[in-house]
């Protein structure tokens, strides 16, 4: 049986006490599995029969029991996580992803303190301040200084990277429908995913970006053809260019200033060298899993713009998109009659480009954090990207209506 299904079934038995560690459908978050269940509860390194994509029938009961035996610790972990988030807000800490930073520490608190008690607020504040102090030594200033001081050497490294990497060989379109159907139904086919990896489907799909205008049509650049990035030494989080047009500094800056787990970083020189090498690779991503994920997102998002919806992933994304009232108005009413601002109408029509941009950013961020994407995580990622696009649209529509109301007054 697929491992994620066994884990989800056992997790559901824990009840609402672990909601802080769960996603909207009640399953454990990807980071819950990665940071808590696998290393601290199931321990597949010591129990290899409990790892892998599928669990043998004889081992299902053991996996379930290990999760149930940890119920008290997991419930206390969820309560400690809520306490640490409150302390984080009180201390006005904004750097890093709370799940990355606090999940394992919360489990440790659960084992040593049990459920949060009367002193939980003080304990939580001390913990978040300790973590902030431990992870705050790698800064944007260090990155900028390295980029400036080593500009000549890095420029040479960048030129060599773009000169030496061969173009991928194009091939027949990869048969991604089987995996997209399975992941959209909540039962990702790990074997199908592995076959696509072995066939380098993501890398082969990137060959089409060498066609003039193709990367621009994907929403990844404003240029007819991708060009080597500048090194750069400044950036604005609110005005970042499209992914392929970002400087090396901008690509790393976005990670330093968002949900980035600094404990997982390489040194600044290592980060910069890796980013330079990554920029010259297919899809400007370093790992085949990342490239395959972009290919899967590209195919699944085809149904957002009126294309066929042959798989469950296509249909679920399409259904989520078409439920939005502003989307229906744009698609059914001409121009201003929709009541949607012109710039947002344009983005609705070209939603696939915004989707692919956000997907690339998410996948790139996972590479920087060293997060290995497993087959059972793909759907949450694909669906989460669309939800992010929709939330951005809703916010822009709200701001537009607020401005109109203020102007009328």
TrEMBL record:
<feature type="region of interest" description="Disordered">
    <location>
        <begin position="218"/>
        <end position="239"/>
    </location>
</feature>
<protein>
    <submittedName>
        <fullName>Uncharacterized protein</fullName>
    </submittedName>
</protein>
